[in-house]
Amino acid sequence: MHSTEVSIPLRDVQLGGELIVPSGAQGLIIFAHGSGSSRHSSRNQFVARILREANLGTLLFDLLTAEEEEAEYYTRHLRFNIPFLSERLVAVSRWALDQAACGSLRAGYFGASTGAAAALVAAAELGEAISAVVSRGGRPDLAASALVRVTAPTLLIVGAFDTPVIPLNESAYAQLPCEKALELVPGASHLFGESGTLEVAAKLATSWFMQHLGGK
Asked: Which CATH number does the domain housing residue 156 bear?
């Protein structure tokens, strides 16, 4: 298994990341987290481990620099800036797919919270370069007009107890023109902190990616 800490050079910033590609990987899953989280998020790290057990590579990275996160803590000016977040994600995706370890792999997005909206906007822009999208506890409604341009098969996973977010996902689901599914995880609230619920979400995501990225 090839594992490395990476520094991702973009036009005006460097973003830290963790790229892990198992030998013979069946695809690469790029994570997009919400504001206030990072590549070290215990929830995303848990999901990433389950994906790698299915022989999928993972790229977890920080959408914001340390300075931006510090400013965001006080101003919250980037939290819902989906165009900004999706632009970052597109640039990172292009970088990742140019790497020797990933160049032949089909790519998917795993997004949480506002990161799910950024993932959908990025998928709409990148088209066939993104083969699948999974949103976990996400706000896909914030992808707005980009929803109707998403061609990648998309799975929306929501906690059954996350009552404010369920209708937002149902609205986004109705607008998606691609192959799609909406799964409610019993007993789960917004952060999937209840026992066993995050594992259920991770296994749903793994199955979706394996189906659409060409895995067995």
From this structure: 3.40.50.1820
Nearest partner of 110 among 3, 213, 209, judged by Cα: 209
Question: CB-based contacts of 193: which residues, under 8 Å, 6+ apart?
Answer: none
**Count of positions (residues) in the chain:** 216
pLDDT tens for residues 54-67? 999 999 998 877 67
- Domain total for the chain? 1
* pTM over cut 0.90: yes
Is residue 20 within 8 A of residue 1, CB to CB? The reply is yes
Distances from the Cα of 139 to the Cα of 162, 164, 166, 203, angstroms: 12, 11, 9, 20
Which residue range is the domain that position 203 belongs to? 2-212
Number of neighbours of residue 74 by Cβ within 10 angstroms: 7
Measured between alpha carbons, how far is 142 from 28 in angstroms, rounded to an integer? 25
* 11-41 per-position pLDDT tens digit: 888 999 999 999 889 999 999 986 655 676 7
